[in-house]
Design brief:
By secondary structure, the protein is an alpha/beta fold. The protein contains 11 helices and 7 strands. Helix 5 links the parallel strand 4 and strand 5. Helix 4 packs across helix 5, helix 6 crosses helix 9 and helix 7 runs antiparallel to helix 11.
Length: 333
Amino acid sequence: MNLRLLSVHAHPDDESSKGAATLARYAAEGVEVLVVTCTGGERGDIQNPAADRPGVRENLGAVRRAELARACEILGVRHHLLGHLDSGLPAGHPLPPLPEGCFADRPLDQTAGELVRVVREFRPHVMLTYDPNGGYPHPDHIACHRISAAAFEAAGDGARYPGAGRPWQPAKLYYHVGGSHPERISALRAELLGRGTDFSCPELSAKLALLWQHDATTLLPITTRVPCGEWFETRFRALRAHETQIDPEGFWFVHPPELLRAAWPTEDYHLARSTVPVELPEDCLFAGVTVETGPASRTEGADRTTAGRTTADRTHSDTTATALTEGLADVLH
């Protein structure tokens, strides 16, 4: 029996831009890795001008699903689509209502139940998702966090979603800590300056400025740094598989993998829940976990939260999301 890792994302391409090298590393080491994608990305924009060909925009959902399949093949992981409609990234003041029937508009009890079924079938020891503000305030990213946290809590409780399979309690739930973390950016700047290289990149700077504004109110501490620099080239290849979303001349590839490895050879996470004892900081998502971990049902005293439901986790709200969405719409999806 192998260890199992479940990574839950909002759109195709998110699995390649958030924690991709981690997934590739663990898959190469024999961990069973499953990517769950909540929507098809149908309402996304085409970010790569070279991919804006006849028929692509009209069939964007199908195109992005095919891109997702190619990216997951490159990463060496399985994938599963929940099949919800992309909510789009609203703009304007005040923000318009969400499209009827979209992922972020669906009842949490229903969408979480769908993920509970996946958890009980796959039986992951560890789950990855976004922080309570979604990593950035896209409605689908926030909804992705909500269903992931709800499924983590419900999957091991046999009284909840009784028709969704035999209960299974994952051992740990982590949030991605994004690449805009100030410590990482400082390390990258120092590496560049040490090589006599200019740090400037207008597109990257614009993105970082908005993410830093967001992070000022939502930044969570790094508890877990996963060494995965050896898989940065794989991450780049997976990103390029998302041809409609990733411009090969864009900010994703400003710095080569070799430089990124030298500056910051890890992908980073915040441990939000744990049912097993842990010692922080960690360098492995499975620290303290064995293949036997993950009881079939929740037992009294089993839900020990060592990293805890932090104050940030309890008190995050959508206020920041509303305030920043309009500006982020110009550079992110």
